[in-house]
Write a structure and sequence with these properties.
The structure is a single chain. With 230 residues, the protein is an alpha+beta fold. The chain is 56% helix and 8% strand. The longest helix is centred in the middle third of the chain and has 21 residues, at 97-117.
């Protein structure tokens, strides 16, 4: 029998217990769980992850519950900093195979953001850098500000791993799958690897990065998907 349990505090809002005592973050905060798809699946998952050293699931759980009003603003500001440097918006200025791949594999992410979220991103095709419009910043701020701490945490780490708010938005709104999102966010790495060969040291770091990416998706899959204004 699991030593973990969930006790309801309000309607479908629970506190996580371990050995009949509140299970706390490293900062001593109680863990509140809400909008979960299955209580039994969540308990089974955390019971299993508790036995693993450096579990990303538990790290994300702690991170989400340690967010206060002040740190929430820091996270949102960090996400917004990626708007003008989004991988999808920077294209190879030479007419080569890489640019063809960028058009083929990235443009549909932009099309979705434009059509369903009214986010008309500018593409930088030359060495002359152009920032995105202010209305894009305002729109993304509105979307992420409405997220609960679990979704915001997942969104934040997905953006840092993919270097792309655009691909992350497509993931959150279910417009792409995990494999495609990962491959497309690492298009340039894939292209250079085929062109120049494999770097074993970097490949090892790349696998760790991919593992974290998968763990983030797995983490957020335990919670009901939130609906945001498009």
């Amino acid at each position: 029998m699991s030593k973990f349990s969930l006790k309801e505090t309000t309607n479908k809002r629970y506190i996580l217990f371990y050995n009949k005592k509140p299970f706390r973050t490293f900062k001593g905060k109680s863990i509140f769980v809400f909008k979960i798809k299955s209580k039994s699946a969540f308990i089974k998952k955390i019971s299993n992850e508790f036995t693993h050293k450096n579990s990303n699931f538990i790290k994300l759980l702690f991170f989400s519950n340690d967010i206060d009003k002040k740190y929430r603003k820091v996270i949102i500001d960090d996400i917004l900093n990626y708007i003008d440097t989004d991988t999808v918006c920077f294209r190879n200025h030479n007419e080569n195979q890489l640019k063809k791949l960028e058009i083929k594999r990235w443009d549909h992410y932009l099309d979705f953001c434009d059509k369903y979220l009214s986010l008309d991103f500018h593409i930088n095709n030359s060495i002359i850098f152009k920032k995105q419009k202010k209305k894009i910043h305002n729109k993304i701020f509105k979307i992420i500000s409405s997220m609960n701490n679990y979704t915001l945490s997942a969104f934040y780490f997905l953006v840092t791993v993919t270097n792309s708010i655009i691909i992350t938005l497509n993931l959150v709104f279910n417009n792409t799958n995990i494999d495609l999102a990962w491959e497309d966010s690492n298009l340039e790495y894939e292209y250079n690897q085929k062109l120049w060969g494999k770097d074993d040291e970097f490949a090892e770091k790349f696998l760790l990065k991919k593992s974290f990416f998968i763990d983030i998706i797995n983490f957020i899959s335990f919670f009901d998907r939130e609906i945001y204004e498009g």
